[in-house]
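User: Here's a chain of 145 residues. Predict its fold as C-alpha cells.
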Amino acid sequence: MSTANRGVNIGPPRFKIAVHSIVWLAKSGSVLSSAMIASQVNSHATFMRRVMQALSNAGFVESKGGREGGYSLLKSADEITLGDIYSAVNAAAGELEFDVDCGGETGEQLDLELEKILYEAELRTIEYLRNYTIRDVMGRVDFCS
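Assistant: Prediction complete.
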C-alpha cells in the first residue's frame, strides 16, 4: 500500500501549514510573499496569514510590508524545532489550570480527567517534536526543483 495518498492528518491543521511554510522559507533563503507561500503549501491565503502571524509572534519569521514585502526567516532551519512550531501555532499548548470541583457531576469530572490526560499527551508530543529541527525534516524530503 502506498503512503503517498493516505492524507495523514496529525495535529492541528495550523501545524502542518506552519511546518510547510517554514520549510519553503528556509529552502528559498529569501523573502516570499503570502501568495507564494499559500500556493506552495496548498492553503487559503487568509488561513496561511493567521499561521504566519503566530510564527511571527513566536520570533521565527519576520513580516515585511509593501510591494516587495513578504515573509522571511529570523532563525535558521537548525534552530527551529517541530515542537517550537507546534507550540507557536497551537494555543492549547500553553499552561492550563484545571479547576477541580468535587461537587460536580460524574460526567463533568470525567471530562476534566480526560482533558488532563489529553493535555499531558500534548505536552509529551511537544517534547518529542523538539527532537526534530526544520533542517532534519528538509533532509528527509526529496525536493523536486
